[in-house]
Amino acid sequence: GGGVDLYVGGAEHAVLHLLYARFWHKVLFDLKLVSHPEPFRRLVNQGIILGEDNRKMSKSIGNVVNPDEVIREHGADALRVFEMFLGPLEQMKPWSSKGMEGSVRFLARVWRLVCEETDAGDWIPSPGLVDATPSRETIRALAKATAKVTEDLEKLQFNTAISALMVLVNHLTGLEKRPKSSVLQLARLLAPFAPHLAEEVHARLGGDGLVSMATWPTYQKEDLQEDSVELAVQVNSKLRGRITVPSQARSEEHTS
User: Fold this and answer.
1) Do the Cβ atoms of 29 and 36 come closer than 8 Å?
2) In DSSP terms, which residues pair with 238 in a beta bridge?
3) Directed axis angle between helix 76-85 and helix 195-204, to 10°?
4) Residues contacting 246, CB < 8 A, separation 6+
5) Helix ranges (DSSP H) in the chain
6) Computed from CA positions of residues 217, 221, 227, 232, in that sequence, does the dihedral angle turn out positive or negative?
7) What are phi and psi of 229, to 5 degrees?
8) Cα(56)–Cα(60) distance, rounded to whole angstroms?
9) Cβ-Cβ contacts under 8 Å for 230 (sequence gap 6 or more)
10) β-pairing, 115-117 with 93-94?
11) How far apart are the C-alpha atoms of 79 and 89, rounded to whole Å?
12) Most buried among 38, 81, 88, 177, by the most CB within 10 A?
């Protein structure tokens, strides 16, 4: 036992945070005061957010983005989502003020799954919300999003997890009637990325307690299966057409 499960830090901190920490931990290990030879079980070096000019942010250059100003204008959730959506955690990524608008629009679409604005400017529950069992297509969309977000969070691949949530929001937005249970599951998946909005959505839908304390969503593997698949038909190595067959069809049915 012992040791930190995950250390996330920049390469610039390698000496003070890593070299010294490893040295003293190994001393303690040699003295048999700790049971693990390394202080950190997993190390991830995150990339730097560059300025819009693609250079490292510096006050002397004048390309620094003040997060407090971004939060005042767009909110903390939008900033969190945008920074995670910029690209892989380990890569250097340039800031983009224009790109921030995409995260704001995404969170606004989540909000509109639950509420709609009246002519007087008040937010009321969306009439599209219903207490109904999700359709087969919605169950599949939820399963795919849950599987992807769960897997990507373990890998710290936040940008692709958010992409999966965007696909799910697109699906739910396109429904004339949206089961409340489906949007509640979306709120739980969204919570690590946009915790404030997720809590508000969860509360407005009558969720129990805090979404941050809720059980993480699960899915059935069979729900990931498409009902049908499209197959290419080739004759003499030339494409002659495409056919759609049930995904559970036997191979002899595919070729008959």
Assistant:
1) yes
2) 235
3) 120
4) 227, 228, 253
5) 20-30, 67-74, 76-85, 97-112, 136-155, 158-173, 180-190, 195-204, 251-255
6) positive
7) -130, 150
8) 11
9) 242, 243, 244
10) unpaired
11) 15
12) 81
Chain segment 169-179, per-residue pLDDT in tens: 999 999 999 99
Does the pLDDT of residue 246 top 70, yes or no? no
What is the per-residue pLDDT across 67-82, written as a single tens digit (0 to 9) for each? Answer: 999 999 999 999 999 9
Q: Which amino acid is at 188?
A: R
Distances (CA, A) of 72 to 58, 166, 227: 22, 24, 46
Pick the closest to residue 43 from 89, 92, 82, 94 (CA basis): 89
DSSP state of 47: P
Task: Provide the pLDDT for residue 241.
Answer: 75
Number of Cβ atoms within 10 Å of the Cβ of 52: 14
CA dist 100 and 105 (Å) reads: 9
> Pairing mode, if any, of strands 7-8 and 43-44?
parallel
Instruction: Say how far apart CA 27 and CA 103 lie, in whole Å.
Output: 47
Record the tokens describing residue 21, joined without a space. Answer: 């920490």
Q: Hey, what amino acid is at 160?
A: T
Tokens of 78: 């939008």
Strands 178-179 and 123-125, by their bridges, are: unpaired
User: For residues 228 and 79, which has the higher predicted lDDT (pLDDT)?
Assistant: 79
Structure tokens at 34: 């700790």
Distance in angstroms (rounded) separating the CA atoms of residues 191 and 162 = 11
